[in-house]
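pasting for ref
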Amino acid sequence: MSTLAEIQAAAESLPPEQKEELFRFLATRLSNAGEPARRATLVQGPHNTLLLEAPPGAPSMTNETVKRLLEEFP
């Protein structure tokens, strides 16, 4: 697939669930375009454990946020 027309035709042939998944994927990519990659980092926690620390501005990990992320996970 090398042309926009081929990509559009392939997208149109998808079932509705996969179109929605493609839309969410593209929306996420577009909303992050031009921003430097923000990544979680490992930090030293209590008792020599490693903790994953979210980058500044990351959403809070509420039950609702985790549920939404799991629903969008491939």
